[in-house]
Write a structure and sequence with these properties.
By secondary structure, the protein is mainly alpha-helical. It contains 22 helices and 2 strands.
Length: 507
C-alpha cells in the first residue's frame, strides 16, 4: 500500500499523533519566547544625562553618565546602552534575525539529508545551551554572539518542527496541524508577555524563558523519526516499523502493513544531483513554484512587519503591547481552517484572497491620517471603525492568515525528499522581507502615502501571482520528484514547462 493508505490503517490523527503534535507545539511556545526576548530585556527606560560643569570640553563625553528615572532592569541599564551605544540593542535583534535566515537555509537541506529527528533534537539542545549563555553573558559582546547562535538554532528547528508535525499525520490533517503550530507561536508571545510582567530582572526572565526548553527537549526525545522521510529515502522497513508503532499506540491493528517498495532510481536518494537546493533550480516545475513562493513569502513578511510597525506605535504598558502582538493573530487561524478546507476556496484561492485583502487594508490606511483623522472617509464612518490603528490591525489579521496558509501550502507543494529545502529557501526570502520592512517608512520623504502604497502593491501582486500555483486540496502529496510529473500535481503552466524540459532532454 502507499503512504496515504497506510495512514488510513494506522490512524491519521489518533492518540499518538495528538500527543506528538502537542509536544512539538510546546516547542513552538519556547521558540516564541526566544523570538520576543529582546523586546522586553532590551527596553530603554527614561533617563537623564549628568555631567560635571568643570570638566574640559574634550573630557565632557567621558564624564557623562546616564541616570535612569524608571525602575527597570534590562541590558540597557546594565551596560548603559544609550546615546552612541543605543544601536547595540537593535544590533542584537538584527543578529537574531540574521541567525534565523542562515538557520532556515542550512537546517532545511540538512534534515532532508540525515533525517528530521536528529536535526530537530540537536538544534533544540544547542538553542537551550546558547539560551543559558544569553542569560549569563558577562558582557554585551558575549550576549550579542549568543543571540546570533540562538537565532541560528531557532530558525532551523522552527522549520524542521513544522515539517515533522505535518509528516506524523495524514494529509487531510495537514492544514489543522499547521494552523495549530502557528497558533502555538502566537500564544507563546502572549505567555511571554505575562512572564515578563511577573519577572522583571532581565537575567532572571531570560533564564526562566529558556528553562522551559529543557522540559520540551526531554519530551521530544521519545518521538520517532518521520515515516514519510524514511519512505522517501528508500528505508521502507524502518518506515513500516514506525507506522506499526503508531498503530499500536492508536489501538489499531497493522501487523500486515506492507508499503510499496520504491526503487532507488525513482526515489532518487542515491543521486545527489536530484536532491537539495540545486534541484529547486534545475527541475522546471520546482523552479516555477520556488520563484512564486519566494515572492509570496517575501511579500507576506514585508506587509506583516510593516503593519506591525504601524500598529505597534501604541502608548501604555509594553507588556500589554507584546501580548496584543500575539493575540491579534489568533482570529486568523480559525479563518484559515474554515476556508482552506472548502472546495470552492482551497489553499490557493484563500491565500491569494487574504493577501489581496491585506493590500486593500493598507490602501485604506493611506486615506486616514495618523493624527486628526478628519478626512471625509473617516467622518462618514463616524470615526468608529476607520482609523489607522484599526485598519493596520485588520491588515495584520489578513496577512497573518495568508502567512499561515503559505506555510501549509508550501509544505504540500514540495515533495517529501526536498520539502525542508524548499521551506528553507522560502523562509530565507521571508527574512529578507523582514529586514527590509523597517526601511520602507523612510519613503515618506517622497510622499506620505508611499510606505503603505508599497505594502499595498506587495500584497496585491503576491496574491495575484499565487494564483499561478496548483491547488493541493484533496490531492495526494508528492513523495518523490517523479510524482511532480502527474497531471494532478501541476497547473497548465507547470505542465508546459515540464514538457518543454523533456523535449530539450531528448534533443
Amino acid at each position: 500500500m502507499d503512504l496515504e493508505s497506510a495512514f488510513q490503517t494506522v490512524g491519521e490523527f489518533g492518540p499518538f499523533q495528538r500527543r506528538a503534535v502537542f509536544v512539538l507545539n510546546l516547542s513552538q511556545l519556547y521558540m516564541a519566547c526566544q523570538s520576543m526576548l529582546i523586546v522586553l530585556i532590551g527596553s530603554t527606560p527614561q533617563y537623564q544625562i549628568q555631567s560635571k560643569d568643570s570638566a574640559q570640553p574634550s573630557q565632557q563625553v567621558q564624564l557623562q553618565h546616564p541616570t535612569f528615572t524608571e525602575d527597570v532592569d534590562s541590558i540597557v541599564t546594565e551596560w548603559l546602552l544609550v546615546k552612541q551605544q543605543a544601536y547595540k540593542v537593535g544590533l542584537a535583534g538584527s543578529l537574531f534575525f540574521a541567525g534565523l535566515l542562515v538557520g532556515n537555509v542550512v537546517f532545511g537541506p540538512l534534515s532532508d539529508k540525515i533525517g528530521r529527528k536528529p536535526v530537530y533534537l540537536t538544534g533544540l539542545f544547542l538553542e537551550v545551551v546558547f539560551g543559558y549563555v544569553t542569560a549569563l553573558a558577562p558582557s554585551y559582546e558575549v550576549f550579542a554572539a549568543s543571540r546570533l547562535l540562538v537565532g541560528l538554532m531557532n530558525g532551523g528547528i522552527g522549520l524542521v518542527c513544522f515539517v515533522l508535525t505535518q509528516e506524523y499525520v495524514g494529509k487531510s490533517y495537514w492544514a489543522m496541524t499547521g494552523t495549530l503550530a502557528s497558533m502555538s507561536f502566537a500564544v507563546g508571545i502572549a505567555l511571554f508577555a505575562a512572564l515578563g510582567y511577573f519577572i522583571r530582572p532581565w537575567r532572571t526572565l531570560a533564564m526562566a524563558a529558556n528553562s522551559s526548553g529543557v522540559l520540551f527537549f526531554l519530551l521530544s526525545v521519545m518521538l520517532p523519526e518521520s515515516p514519510r522521510w524514511l519512505y522517501s529515502q528508500g528505508q521502507t522497513e524502518r518506515a513500516e516499523e514506525v507506522l506499526r508503532y503508531m498503530a499500536q499506540k492508536n489501538s489499531n491493528k497493522a501487523n500486515n502493513l506492507v508499503l510499496q517498495r520504491v526503487s532507488a532510481g525513482k526515489a532518487g536518494y542515491h543521486d545527489n544531483r536530484r536532491s537539495g537546493v540545486l534541484q529547486l533550480i534545475v527541475h522546471p516545475v520546482l523552479r516555477l513554484r520556488t520563484v512564486v513562493l519566494m515572492y509570496v513569502w517575501y511579500a507576506c513578511s514585508l506587509v506583516y512587519y510593516g503593519l506591525t510597525l504601524g500598529a505597534g506605535d501604541m502608548s501604555g504598558s509594553r507588556y500589554l503591547n507584546v501580548a496584543m502582538y500575539g493575540v491579534v493573530e489568533l482570529p486568523a487561524y480559525p479563518l484559515c481552517i474554515y476556508f482552506i478546507n472548502k472546495h470552492w476556496a482551497g489553499r490557493r484561492k484563500s491565500m491569494a484572497a487574504f493577501l489581496c485583502l491585506a493590500g486593500v487594508a493598507c490602501l485604506c490606511t493611506t486615506l486616514v491620517p495618523d493624527s486628526s483623522g478628519e478626512t471625509l472617509l473617516y467622518k462618514s464612518a463616524g470615526g468608529l471603525f476607520l482609523s489607522v490603528t484599526s485598519l493596520a490591525l485588520l491588515g495584520k489579521l489578513m496577512v497573518s492568515a495568508a502567512f499561515n496558509i503559505a506555510y501549509v501550502y508550501t509544505s504540500e507543494l514540495y515533495p517529501t525528499v526536498i520539502r525542508n529545502a524548499g521551506l528553507g529557501v522560502c523562509a530565507m526570502s521571508c527574512r529578507v522581507g523582514g529586514i527590509l520592512a523597517p526601511f520602507v517608512p523612510s519613503m515618506r520623504a517622497l510622499h506620505t502615502s508611499m510606505p503603505f502604497t508599497v505594502f499595498c502593491l506587495s500584497g496585491l501582486s503576491a496574491g495575484c501571482l499565487g494564483l499561478l500555483l496548483p491547488e493541493t486540496l484533496h490531492r495526494p502529496a508528492a513523495e518523490t520528484l517523479e510524482d511532480l510529473s502527474s497531471p494532478n500535481q501541476a497547473r497548465v503552466l507547470e505542465t508546459k514547462a515540464l514538457l518543454y524540459d523533456n523535449e530539450s532532454n531528448h534533443l
